[in-house]
Fold this sequence. Notes:
seven-stranded mixed sheet, 22% strand, alpha/beta, 182 residues
Amino acid sequence: MSIVLITGGVRSGKSAFAEQLAKERSASVLYVATGVCTDEEMEARIVLHRKRRPASWGISETPYDAADGVAAYHAYDAVLFDCVSTWISNLLIAVPEERLRNEKETKRINEEVERWLALAKQYEGTLIVVTSETGLGGVAMSRLGRWFQDVLGSVNQRIAAEADDVYAVLSGIPWQIKGAGI
């Protein structure tokens, strides 16, 4: 098994780069989509992603329980998980406001990530994981935003520690920051 983590800012080109890597690795690709269509803008983003990827790729829409979708990975040579930041957002938004930044909720989300990672490590193909980098902007102005930055920052570090290769995409240009190619 090989994990490739691709991080970068919002609209940096990380998904397009991940799609290109997946095409280069195999024709047998499962695209794991974590987005939830909540409004017209999100719908447009989902449509854009659908148009870019080959029709031959498999699709697994897994916005909440990523670990439950891992069994489908084994039927493909490569899996593109797009993206961790949206998955974490979905989990945080589902938490009632009075429990924001609650240690038990944070622990539960981290345990979900660990469960997904443990199952994903049993997959024998290439797992390409896309995420947004939280450390490129200022501190969020809302309590939920700060919690998102804290949780996603630690989740990204956890996945990067397991990854064989890590790329940062800036303005559409990928830079390998971990792995054999550097």
